[in-house]
Amino acid sequence: ALVEKPSSEDKKTFRYLTIEEDKASLGIYHVFLLIEDGFFHISNLALAEIETAMEKMDMGSLKELQSLMKIDFCSTSEHHEEGCSTAVVFNMGPEIHLMIGGDNENVLTHWTMDPRQTKMCLTHSVDNSLIPGVRKMVVADNLLYVLDTEDSLSLWDLHFLVMVHCWQDLAIHDFELTTECGSASRVAQDTGSMKMITLIKQDNSQINSMQIRCLPSMTVCYSLDVSSVSCLVQTNINMDTIYLVEGICENPERWD
């Protein structure tokens, strides 16, 4: 095992996992695995070649490809004292960037690839003077949407990590970005038709409101009542299909 199980059953061992292709070396991938006090970075991962070697049962090629893989661990304990909560990976040109969210003194840390050492290095951090902590982040073009621990959504300039807007009047439980052509993975290519799907908390109610909002105005164009025990699924969401997971409350008799 890469890490030990958390001491508390309420804590998650793994906080975030993503695979990103290296734009400078097509066919080569990077894996980022976020845990409480840092992240693992697996580089030189040739997925297509590994798949071909497995299909041919070519053990020699598999061993060679495995020997080229590199696994690094970067500690975040000095920057996120209360642990990491989530992360997002994005590209600026050919460069791979990692944004990590947390609580306490530093709520955001920005990591980039050092081309000389081929490892991730800290380049920027944001303190908790504007937001108390980070629950979720989504990147769209040059913008970063951040949902904080007090259910407020804010918009940040991705290059300078400066907050440019905040919707404090909305108690947002969850959100996703989508376009007519697909989900947030393609948002940067089609920002003109971008919309936001939000789950809004209702006051003293066990019902949330799922709302489709036009951007950048945040005007509601569609809404639907759903269970308060629900979340949006991060998959290929489009305007024809939205995936929502609903549960039941622990005390359903308390429903109004």
From TrEMBL:
| GO biological process assignments | mitotic sister chromatid segregation; mitotic spindle assembly checkpoint signaling; protein localization to kinetochore involved in kinetochore assembly
Specify the superkingdom.
Eukaryota
Q: Name one GO molecular function term.
A: small GTPase binding
Residues annotated as signal peptide: none
Task: Domain (KNTC1 N-terminal): give its ranges.
Answer: 2-253
Q: Which InterPro entries match?
A: KNTC1, KNTC1_N
What Pfam families does the database record attribute to this sequence?
KNTC1_N
Provide a GO CC annotation, any one.
Answer: RZZ complex
Protein name per its UniProtKB record: Kinetochore-associated protein 1-like
**Gene symbol of the encoding locus:** LOC104949375
